[in-house]
Design brief:
By secondary structure, the protein is of the alpha/beta class. The protein has eleven helices and 15 strands. The radius of gyration is 18 Å and the shape is globular.
Length: 336
């Protein structure tokens, strides 16, 4: 059974494992450094659908199908699925998975949703409530841009601190067995440091990342050198630098261990993505295309995976509200 360690951290006694995973990425993402590692890449980000939203739903549907097929099981073998995205009422997940006859939990944690889903899937398996659980997230540049910012054909100037929403999806299957172990998790608290610029998400989310990561180190009695990698979701160039500075102020030097999925998925200098990638599909696709393979091969033995999310919508920002953020972290162990 799961147990608590310190103030925020959960230890999974059964060490649930990720036994299957899949990733799908868009055209721009396929042109980045990880392009050849995704299971499927799109030549057209509409993917044969009539709208961007339908395309995003298809990302989740096909990603989950890949996970099930890779494991060699049937849909009926899945006990529950945790899914989310960035769209209003999480329609990417709801419409993408509506034909699955599996108990469904819809999640919204903005860009932190992938790690939120991983925590809940691990809890469901570790507690014995589920034998097999899937978690999946997605994002789509065109659907997110239209909802959160401006029409695609507006052509406005982007801020240097702005990030590019990743068109991608990632999904994993969690169960008892052999695979990458989920040792523990530190769910995050909401942190709001008064940032109101919606084009500067990295700055808004970095304090939440620092809060959760500091809690993890204190609860577990570990330090950065105990891990091969500390991987954040989509802080980008700006947020990553702020996080490293804040962690140094808290007494933890993570610069030699830290990387960020928003900095990995694109060639930032050549692809004109400003401060890097973002979105629910950013950490999901990078983890499922690249990081988990390094855990399986033994290249990474133990790591921290942490996704950050800006918990706002356009109405709140237009009303002058600041941006609350959250970060959820997990400790993962590679295959021995």
């Amino acid at each position: 059974m799961s147990s608590r360690k310190g103030k925020q951290t959960i230890v999974f006694d059964k060490r649930p494992a990720i036994t299957s995973y899949a990733s799908i990425a868009g055209k721009k993402e396929s042109e980045g450094p990880l392009g050849k590692q995704f299971d499927i890449t799109l030549n057209d980000d509409r993917w044969g659908e009539k709208s961007w939203e339908k395309s995003e739903s298809k990302l989740q549907k096909e990603c989950v199908r890949l996970v099930i097929d890779k494991r060699g099981i049937c849909e009926s073998d899945i006990n529950c699925i945790f899914a989310g995205d960035l769209l209003n009422q999480c329609v990417g997940a709801h419409y993408g998975l509506r034909d699955m006859r599996v108990p469904f939990f819809g999640l919204f944690g903005a860009c932190s949703t992938f790690c939120e889903g991983m925590i809940l899937a691990a809890m469901s398996v570790d507690s014995g409530c589920s034998e097999r659980s899937i978690f999946v997230t997605s994002s789509h540049y065109c659907s997110a841009e239209k909802q959160f910012r401006l029409p695609l054909d507006y052509g406005g100037q982007r801020s240097p601190t702005a990030q590019w929403t990743v068109t991608a999806s990632g999904a994993c299957l969690v169960e008892e067995g052999d695979g990458v172990r989920i040792l523990g998790a530190t769910p995050g608290r909401i942190v709001d440091m008064g940032i109101s610029d919606a084009s500067n998400m990295g700055t808004a989310m970095a304090p939440a990342a620092a809060d959760t990561l500091t809690a993890l180190f204190k609860d577990t009695g570990t330090v950065p050198d105990d891990y091969d990698l500390i991987l954040t979701g989509d802080l980008g160039v700006v947020g990553s630098d702020i996080l490293c500075g804040m962690m140094a102020d808290n007494g933890f030097d993570i610069r030699q261990k830290h990387n960020d999925c928003g900095c990995m998925i694109y060639n930032i200098k050549e692809q004109d993505v400003h401060a890097g990638g973002s979105g629910c599909g950013c950490i999901a696709s990078v983890f499922c295309a690249d990081t988990i393979k390094k855990l399986q091969s033994g290249k990474i033995k133990k790591m921290i995976l942490m996704a950050t999310g800006a918990l706002m919508n356009t109405q709140a920002i237009n009303q002058g509200e600041t941006i609350p953020s959250v970060a959820h972290a997990l400790i993962l162990e590679g295959v021995r």
